[in-house]
Amino acid sequence: MYLNCHSYHSLRYGTIPLNELVQQAKISGLTSVALTDINTVTGIYDFTKQCKEVGIKPIVGVEFRQNNRLLFIGLAKNQKGIGEMCRLLTHHNLSKTHLPEVAPAFENVFVIYPTANMPNELRNFEYIAIRPEEVIKLFKTEWKPIIQKAVILQPVTFRSKKEFNLHRILRAIDNNTLLSKLTEEDICKTSEILTSPEELLKKYSEYPEILKNTEFLIEECNFEFEFKTPRNKKFYTKSKEGDRLLLENLAKSGLLKRYGNSNKEAQARVIKELKVINDLNFSGYFLITWDIIQYSKSQGFMHVGRGSGANSIVSYCLGITDICPIELDLYFERFLNENRKSPPDFDIDWSWRERDFILEYIFKRFDPNHVAFCGTNVEFKYRSIFREVGKVFGLSKDELDGLSKAKGRQRESNSVVKYVEEYGMMLEKYPNQRSMHSCGIIISEEPITNFTALEMPPKGFPIVQFDMHVAEDIGFEKFDILSQRGLGTIDEAVKIIEKNRGIKVDITDTSLSKNEAKCNELLSIGKTLGCFYIESPAMRGLLRRLKCDNYKTLVAASSIIRPGVAQSGMMREYIFRHNNPDKFEYFHEVFKEQLGETYGVMVYQEDVIKIALHYGGLTAAYGDILRRAISGKGRSLAELQSVKNQFFVSCKAKGHPEKLSEEVYRQIESFAGYSFCKAHSASYAVESYQSLYLKTYYGIEFMVAAINNGGGFYRLEIYIHEAKMSGATIHNPCINKSVYQTTVDGTDVYLGFMLLKNLNSEYIFNIVAEREKNGAFKSIENFITRVPSGLESIQTLIFIGAFRCIGKTKSQLIIEARMLLIHHKLEVNTPLLIEEPTKEYKFPIIERSILEDAFDEIELLSFPVSCSPFDLLETKFKSGILANNLINYLKKEVKLIAYLVSIKQVPTKMGMMFFGTWIDANGDYFDTAHFPKSLINYSFKGGGCYLLLGTVEVDYHFPTITVSKMAKMPFKPDPRYANSKTLQFKATEQLRGDISTTERAPYPQEHEINLPRIKMVKE
Asked: For the Polymerase/histidinol phosphatase N-terminal domain, which residue ranges apply (predicted)?
């Protein structure tokens, strides 16, 4: 009888989570219930499954509204009916047109109109909704004809008075208004709850026709959906056989290119993989991915194929990935096997600059009606909730700021704040709006609107109305099209090198970018700043602790640095064994044979499969089931127990003692939940090596590329410093040399105009375009005549030194600019046919120091260029101890001045610790540790230089200073504000350190890891 229920997927309207709506229907004794969310089908698939699980017949549809006015309700007779309604919604969403007042001629949809929007004539599939409160009107003569086509309508929007208040808050948020200003039309009626069926039927007892019509709709609506049936585009060619043959030919061609014609192991593996791929109907998936990669290569784009897809030799032969699975002993079963029916997983990265070109190609190549992004539900977030809810209660901006930043008891306890907090907590995890998934694309066999309506977010690519989990659940395998700045840096660096040095570097050549001697040397001492994935303080410290000097160790390091692996203690154990190979035993021979590369420590997800296969005697495919079951990937407790039992039965059949098998299973169980895919680590390691190779041999060009691609872990100042350390001479932006981005000419690096705080991009492009069209600027008057400029923009350029090529001082230029701009109109200027000679002015000579230039730079760039921060200090103290000789002062107290690069806040069992990264007076990096006790009296006080006092500790080749005392050092006063004490230190307050935090639990100590270091004796 309930044909119009809203869940919280009726965004900013409904208040009931889907599962709770179904449970309430079950408790109320309903045998059928309809989900009709407003203008969306987001919840219909989860709703259908949940209803079937509790024995309720699911009815699905859509409530069509325009500007919050109910037009009609559509109920799907079957799956085709969902398609019809989705196409109507899609047209409305993509064309930005109004929904029709009257439903189109649906063939598989029943339409129910509210009495406020009754058409003059009803077609056979159309009905009129009679709410309980409207029954009394049926006594009137004019309503008699309606009864023959009327049905019961008891909308459900909330469950209690408190939820009704929550509904009102949601409506106020949606309308961006105060609660007190909501009208009756803005909100639902107070009767929209799920009452008992008996109570509802009683209200219509005098109108059997209405009851009969309602029962008829319930009987006729039969939405049956086959979950897990593949929905992706089936064939790349026109048939399964055509796909099989094409994939086989491409794989064999790639096999010859990658391995030559005599590698029997590679040939056998290709044949084995092709059979599994064809049997599981994934040939088309591989070919579509290959097609996208071919287009990318044709455009000269770089890509990285990573994720478990790199476990496949077929993907390696097709050029989708660049990781040899044989070299790294990667198991195909981790990616795809006959027991794993879930979708394969190709994660493919492009430069952030090129990703949109790839997306445009995909949408054109595979028919816009069959391509869309996955959606995602953006939930109400903790801090924003209080701001949103506080706003509708009428709190001021200051009150909202305080409310969103305060925690728990810190908030005031007045009645309004109490309500804001109470209802705000109810909203946590509620969907707020739909958005585009960051990378997942669906390419379907049928038109996507058969399953969902499409929406058009601001980015310009259509999205489906459900998320990636629902997509997988109903049979869609998404294609992950990702982007990253690291690839952009590599790609741009190669182009800059060719332009600057005339050298064409093939960075995809693994003989250049993997296991190169000089790169390995820098890798082992952590000189990797700017390099993808291996530049953070933690990663550079790990590389030094391992003395990492080869590709395979880097692959391991890329995995054990991950939070889960480190959290388990495996990172600590791996470091110990790597540095002390004679101080442990392999507790079983299988661990020595299969995990010898990682000293018997399970570092990768693939290691679970190895142990299951070689110790447990299971197949590799079943080993992957074991891994997924233990890690909680969609398995029930019963399934997990079944997998566990099978493992022990198999171990017993191989003759292993039970105690030994229990320890092996314990290790697998403690590991599988946090493990990392080896293929993923290997892909990262290749890209890290590519970055490191470019930095090692073409450091200036590489760092310029890093600057232009937004840097990485650190702020841009650090990458500019690193360019300087690579031999570059850094120049401030120049009106006759610089462009939007940073450029390099030989060893001269000209910072780009984009780095200046006060210039907008349009103005910058005008400068560059004018210079390219009509030549260099000859004077400030010439510049102002040719480029429309305001005083603020001109002053920014003058103070940064952009007019230094003209040969006048900043003071002279400022006076001249102001005189010129007094009578100058800010408009597009036309070059004069005959240029008038530049007026010359005589100015008093006002000397400016390098110190003043440095303060100008801090103000405009956030860091000095003309000198180092150390040159700005008041103190004359110079320390003889530097980063490069710290290792010689083990256990000794040292004192030195350093410039703060970054701080990381980390929880430990002693309390919150800080780890600092610093630059010494020579420009080299070192690290510090700050224990909770020292931080009480000697805390960080923002960016700048500090005097540090502490003891040098060395942890596996990695020196750090455990700081006992520190003090921020005062800078010289700003000479530009000699007459204002309040402004003399304003500029240097802008110097900052990068700050990062983590909320993980403390890492375990060595004695807590519980990984045996001795051989277990057989019973």
From this structure: 1-68
- Contact between 571 and 675 under an 8 Å Cβ cutoff? The reply is no
Average pLDDT of the chain, as a whole number: 90
Task: Return the residue matching tokens 């020292």.
Answer: 934
Region 220-249 average pLDDT: 94
Query: Is residue 191 a contact partner of residue 132, using CB atoms and an 8 Å limit?
Result: yes
**For 504-563, what is each residue's pLDDT tens digit?**
999 988 777 778 899 999 999 999 999 999 999 999 999 999 999 999 999 999 988 887
Helix H or strand E segment including 890: none
pLDDT at 269 exceeding the cut of 80 = yes
- The Cα–Cα gap between 872 and 289 comes to 55
Best CA proximity match to 217, nearest among 374, 391, 1: 1
Residue environment code for 411-424, b if the CB has 16+ CB neighbours within 10 A, otherwise e: beeeeebebbbebb
Q: How far apart are CA 794 and CA 814, in angstroms?
A: 8
CA–CA distance, 175 with 169 (Å, rounded to integer): 10
Please tell me the distance from the alpha carbon of residue 551 to that of residue 539, in angstroms, as a whole number: 15
Q: Are 5 and 35 in contact (CB under 8 A)?
A: yes
Quote the pLDDT of residue 189: 95
What is the DSSP annotation of 955-968?
Answer: ETTEEEEEEEEEEE
Report the run of H or E that residue 770 belongs to, with start and end. Answer: helix 761-774
Q: Give the separation between CA 311 and CA 678, rounded to whole angstroms.
A: 8
Condensed to tens digits (0 to 9), the pLDDT of residues 130-182 reads 999 999 988 888 888 889 999 999 999 999 999 999 999 999 999 999 999 99
Inter-helix orientation angle 397-405/382-392, to 10°: 150
- Give the model's pLDDT for residue 837: 56
Q: What residues have CB less than 8 Å from 91, skipping those under 6 apart?
A: 97
Asked if 440 and 472 count as a contact pair (C-beta separation under 8 A), the reply is: no
Angle, CA 172 vertex, CA 171 and CA 177 arms, to 5°: 145
Q: What is the DSSP string of 84-118?
A: HHHHHHHHHHHHTPPPPSS----SSEEEEE-GGG-
Angle between helices 699-708 and 716-725 (to 10 degrees): 170
Which residue, 524, 926, 438, 493, is CA-closest to 687? Answer: 493
DSSP per-residue string spanning 774-841: H----SHHHHHHHS---HHHHHHHHHTTTTGGGT--HHHHHHHHHHHHHS---SPPPPPSSPPPPP--
Find where tokens 């309903």 sit.
Answer: 30
- Which tens digits make up the pLDDT trace of 312-322? 999 999 999 98
908 or 125, which is more confident?
125
> Tokens 């791929």 — which residue?
277
709-726: burial string, b at 16+ Cβ within 10 Å, e else: bebbbbbbbbbbbbbbbb
Could you give the CA distance from residue 753 to residue 162 in angstroms, rounded to a whole number? 55
Question: Do residues 682 and 323 lie in contact, with contact meaning Cβ atoms separated by under 8 Å?
Answer: yes
**AA identity, residue 127:** Y
Would you say residue 185 has pLDDT above 60? yes
Query: Cα–Cα distance between 443 and 478 in angstroms, integer?
Result: 7
Q: Measured between alpha carbons, how far is 601 from 415 in angstroms, rounded to an integer?
A: 57
Per-residue pLDDT, 411: 47
pLDDT of residue 908: 83
pLDDT over 60 at 830, yes or no = no
**390 pLDDT above the threshold of 90:** no
Position 508 scores a pLDDT of: 85
Helix axis angle, 283-298 to 240-259, nearest 10° = 50
Confidence of residue 478 (pLDDT cuts 50, 70, 90): confident
CA-atom Rg of the chain in angstroms: 34
Distance of alpha carbon 307 from alpha carbon 981, whole angstroms = 57
Q: How far apart are CA 731 and CA 998, in angstroms?
A: 37
